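Hi support team,

I've been running sequence recovery on a batch of backbones for a student project. Most finish fine, but this one hangs at about 90% for roughly twenty minutes before it completes. I'm not sure whether the input is malformed or the queue is just slow. I've pasted the structure tokens below so you can try to reproduce it. Let me know if you need the job ID as well.

Thanks,
M.K.
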């Protein structure tokens, strides 16, 4: 499903002559192809799942956010703008992010659902969140919130 969405987006970007979107989608597809090849070597002939594609795209967003910080520190605002444009394109494929109070409520609810009570249950809690909400959370932030909730 994600693959078809990406291919359609690439065709649309070509028709619209949107070079930024086209380049970004091509980067996503190249990274996806690399991951598929690696998965095939491990015996998974279908390539990576849609959940893994979402995780890959979240990683791409994080990489670009780090680049933006570095470019801004170096006074290269035009490059920071390009990175932000790429982030916007990548995020258009990601589900809506759960943030703020809704995120805290989701974490609390999940902790109650699985009966987590201390830090020993952090792994189970994170696994459940990743299973239920793939691509909808920044799990590096979530791990800190889960840790606070379980202490």
């Amino acid at each position: 499903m994600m693959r078809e969405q990406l291919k359609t987006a690439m065709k649309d970007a070509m028709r619209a002559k949107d070079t930024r979107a086209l380049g970004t989608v091509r980067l996503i597809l190249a990274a996806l192809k690399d991951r598929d090849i690696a998965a095939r070597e491990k015996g998974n002939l279908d390539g990576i799942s849609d959940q893994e594609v979402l995780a890959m795209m979240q990683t791409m967003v994080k990489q670009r956010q780090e680049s933006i910080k570095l470019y801004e520190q170096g006074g290269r605002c035009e490059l920071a703008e390009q990175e932000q444009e790429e982030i916007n394109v990548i995020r258009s494929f990601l589900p809506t992010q759960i943030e703020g109070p809704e995120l805290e409520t989701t974490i609390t609810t999940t902790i109650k659902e699985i009966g987590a009570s201390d830090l020993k249950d952090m792994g189970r809690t994170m696994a459940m969140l990743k299973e239920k909400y793939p691509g909808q959370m920044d799990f590096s932030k979530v791990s800190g919130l889960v840790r606070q909730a379980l202490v």
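--
Follow-up from support: It reproduced on our side and the slowdown came from queue contention, not your input. Residues 100-150 form a domain with the Arc Repressor Mutant, subunit A fold (CATH 1.10.10.410). No action needed from you.
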